[in-house]
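Co-fold these.
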Amino acid sequence: MHRNLWIATAVAVATLSFTAPVSAGENPKDVAFLAIDRNTDAMAKIGDSIYYFAELGMQEFESAKLLKEVLESGGFTVELGGAGMPTNVWAKWGSGKPVIAIVTEVDALQEGSQTPNVFDHKPLVDGAPGHMEGHNTHGGVATTAAFAVKEAMQRFNIPGTVMVSFGPAEEQILSRPFLVRAGYFKDVDAAIILHIGDNSSTGYGLQNYAAISSKFTFHGRTAHGAVNPWDGKDAVDAVELMDIGFDKLREHLRPTYRAQRTITMGGLQPNIIPDTGQIWWYVRDATGPAAKETYDKLVKIADGAALMTGTTYDVEYVASAWPQIGNKVIAGAIQKNIEQVGLPQWTPEEIQFAKDFQHARGVKEVGLSTQPPPLGTRPQSSSSNDNGDVTWNVPTGLMNFPASVPGILYHHWAAGVTPTSSIAHKGMVIGAKVLAASVLDLMTSPELRADAKKQFDKDTQDTKYFTLMPPEAKPPLDLNRAMMEQFRPAMAKFYLNEHPKFQ
Ligand SMILES: [Zn+2]
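Predicted complex below.
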């Protein structure tokens, strides 16, 4: 449905566009870089505004509103609410093939609130969420790069469509399987996923792990633990037996597997036979099918635990992800742009700030990155990211941009110190340029797209994508709502109230 609407809008936008004659020596990448240089203030304001919104997954309402506003100021058509998620942002400019998508996220983390540029743990609002993984910078980089690509396409009459996707709740590994299932990536020819880093880098091959997360709730019958326990069916016994059962399985799983659990309902008090017990599982492995195989065994163990205890159970799907597979051909193109764009010209003050920060955090005082790493296979990590599902459906390049301080690890309040600093702002400019140039490469080179597709076909030859979600899975729209409602009034006092526009 959204597609038809877009076609109409795209035609309208295309008719209105005005193109001055192209002068000799001008090229699309230079036009894009100039557009980025012209909009560095807007880009910084977008990133900084989102930092102070600090919204948790599925509650990115202010961030989504701002992204829509700025993308519209740049001529994009923006849809909010796709795939049943109110904070999903899907934007496009242009029409027809090729379709190149920029994919990222802007959600914050629980208890990440931090006063910027201060080395001590000093929350802006006690206990509130905050950007301790710098996702706020993604908002600035993705929108500004998309705008720059549009400027170059317009100037050179380059055919095609540039898409921008901000998926909700990346930190909960949530939204991308829903976007894929809803068909958003069906017509996309290639994609680039961006993420903050402490250097400009790309990689290819399997980059992280598949994951499936579900809660198993057992239902029994309550009774007095001392008076008539024989009338009871103990749901927490079932939870324990499921845990023990899986421990017996561990020996027979691939060495690559990971599995963790937490008991989320464990009864009320000892003399009440619990009629409800719940255990929440994460099952991971190096590939989607391997994770699914272990997960299916886990479900069998739940069957056994229920049988042994005379209980029943239901499963609540929480999240799933395929491992990211980075396309080697696109990585090669990104690497060339990384080397061409270079790294920021850091001032002595910025380098000293980074060293003082590293000293304060007890890590190696290396300052800031000045040399991008050479292209090579980055090792596969055992963490997961829901945009993995995109990479099994579309040839996808992965890129990191140098907007944080080496040695300062994410998911820690310390990573909330610099995402609005000049270090972040300068790294964002580099990120936007590498991203815009790489999107333009894909947009303008049929050979590059064909090679990337060939690589994709090879990578996915033996492993075909299937969704790890059960068919009835729905996005959990209430996720993090109570927490955001609790903290938003105090956090709102810090909002920048900026309305950046592209020019
Ligand atoms: Zn992230």
